[in-house]
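Dear V.,

Thank you for sending over the compound details. I've combined the ligand you provided, magnesium ion, with the protein sequence from our construct and run the structure prediction for the complex. I'm sharing the raw inputs here so there's no ambiguity about protonation or stereochemistry in the SMILES, which I know was a concern on your side last time.
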Amino acid sequence: MALTINELELKGFRNYDRFLMQINPGISVVVGPNAIGKTNLLEAIQLVTAGESFRRPKWTEIVKMNEPAALVNMKASGDGQILDVSLKIKNNRREYTINEKRKRPKDLLGRIPCVVFTPDDLFMIKGPAEERRRTIDEAGDQLSASYARLRTTYTRLLKQRNAALRAEVVGEQMGALDEQIVDVGAKLTAHRARLANRLASKAAALYSSMADGEELSVELQPSWTRLGMPNTGCSEDEARAALTKALPKAAREERARMLTTVGPHRDDLIFKIGGVDARTYASQGQQRSAALAWKLAEVGVIEDLLGSKPILLLDDVMSELDKNRRSALTKVLSYTTQTIITTANLQYFAPEMLSSTTVVELAP
Ligand SMILES: Nc1ncnc2c1ncn2[C@@H]1O[C@H](COP(=O)(O)OP(=O)(O)OP(=O)(O)O)[C@@H](O)[C@H]1O
Ligand SMILES: [Mg+2]
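Below is the predicted structure of the protein with magnesium ion bound, written out as C-alpha cells.
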C-alpha cells in the first residue's frame, strides 16, 4: 500500500489566488484551456512530494504576483498513516512542515515518492548529458538516502578539488583530495550504474509495448570513456580502478582548464533505439516515447525498491503521442495507485478510460 494524496490547497501560488482540490486515488484527468493553471498544479504537487520543481524556478517566481507569500498544503493518507505537508514560500525561501513540524526539503524524500513527466522531458533524450544525469539523480535521491548523501558529498569534494586546481595546489594535499574524490566518485558511479540497469530493463519492456516491439536500450557511459578508456564495468571496484587510472591521464587537461574533467559529474546515459543513438537519429515521437518509458520505468523501480508505488504526474502527455501509444500508456496507467494527467482536450482519452477516472475541470 502506498500513501495517496487526498487534498491539495494552494494560496497565492502562481496564477492561483486560492484553490482547493480533493484528489481521488486512481486516475484523475485535469482538463482546462491553455494558461488556466494545469501545469502549475502539477508543480505544486511535485514541490510537496519530491521537494522540487521540474521548472527549476527561482522561488520568488512561484509566488503569485503582488502577493507576499505562496502556500501549498497537502493531506495524504494510507498505510494507517496520515501525512500533512505544507510549504510556504516567502522572500525567495522555502519553509516546509511535515505534520506541523518544521522540516528540511530533503526530509520529504522517500515519503511520497513522485514521478513527473512533462513535454520538456524530451530534452532528456536530445539535450546535453547534464539533463540525463539530472533525471537519474532525481530518481536516485528519492529512492535512497545513501544515493542523496553520496551526491552531496561528491558535489562538495568536486568544488574543493576545482578550487585546488585553480589555486594550483600540488603534492600531498592534492593527493589526499584525489583519493577522496576517487572513493566517493566510484561509489556514486557504481550506484548510478546499478540504478540505470534496473531502469533500463523496465524501460525497454515499456517502450517495446508502446512502440510495436521496437527496441530501446539504455546504458550508463562512465566518465572515463571520454579519455578513450574502455567501459569494462561499473561495479564499485571497477569504477575505483578506472578513476584511479583516469585522473593521471586527465592531469594535463585538468591543470590547463583548472577543472576536474573526469568523475560522475561527467557520466552520461546512452539511449539507443533499434540499436542506434536516439539523441542523433530518433524521431521526435520516438524520443518522446523513450523519455516516457524511462519515467514509467521509475514508477516500477520505486515500487520494487521502496515497496510502494509513487504518485505519477503527467503533463499534457496524450497530445504528443499517436493513437497506439496513447492506448499502450492507458494500459500502464491502470496499474498505478494515483496518477494525475493534465490535458487541454478530453478527446485524447478513450471513453472507456474516462469512465474509470475522475475528471476535474478547471474553468476561468
Ligand atoms: N508568479 C505568478 N503570478 C501570477 N501568474 C503566474 C505566475 N507564474 C505563472 N503564472 C501564470 O500561470 C498561468 C498558467 O500557467 P500553466 O503553465 O499552469 O498553464 P496550463 O494550464 O498548463 O496551460 P497550457 O495548456 O498552455 O500548458 C500562466 O498564464 C502564467 O502567466
Ligand atoms: Mg501546461
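A first observation: Residues 62 and 315 are 18 Å apart (CA to CA).

Warm regards,
I. M.
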